[in-house]
Specification:
The structure is a single chain. By secondary structure, this protein is an all-alpha fold. 78% of the residues lie in helices and 0% in strands. The chain has 7 helices and no strands.
């Protein structure tokens, strides 16, 4: 069920962002920033297909930046289910929510750039909780 996919994404991607943060390379950050800029630009241009691809790239690049290879393997093994939870809400997402999603991505990038594991993990989890809410799924924050 979709609620399990979002809950798993929050745990897994939150941890991937947190573990990526401390030692993230400038090259990895540049790729993530580029995906975020594309995410914003393509949405503003109305290219929803390209926009979704930029979102997928953003999330995958953060996962790839984690030094925890096993977590990344788990993420990659679930990528089909993960990507569907990213694709499905975008056509139904109103512009106010999409602007917030863009800002959430920017908070993730800022936390990664600051190399702050706690903030990176929480920014990612908050983003996924907000995205789940668009699909009518309420995720309880994990402390």
């Amino acid at each position: 069920p979709l609620n399990e996919v979002y809950a798993t994404r929050a745990v897994l991607e939150g941890e991937l962002a947190a573990t990526a943060a401390a030692g993230i390379s400038e090259d990895a950050l540049a790729g993530i920033r580029g995906a975020q800029q594309q995410f914003r630009k393509l949405y503003q241009e109305g290219d929803l297909i390209g926009h979704v691809e930029a979102d997928l790239s953003f999330h995958r690049q953060i996962a790839a930046a984690s030094p925890n290879g096993l977590l990344n393997q788990i993420y990659e093994s679930l990528i089909g289910m993960m990507t569907e939870s990213q694709r499905s809400p975008i056509p139904m997402t109103d512009s106010t929510r999409m602007e917030r999603s863009i800002q959430e991505h920017e908070r993730i990038v800022a936390a990664l750039s600051a190399r702050d594991p706690a903030q990176s993990g929480e920014a990612m989890r908050a983003h996924i909780r907000a995205t789940a809410a668009c699909a009518g799924i309420v995720l309880t924050p994990v402390t």
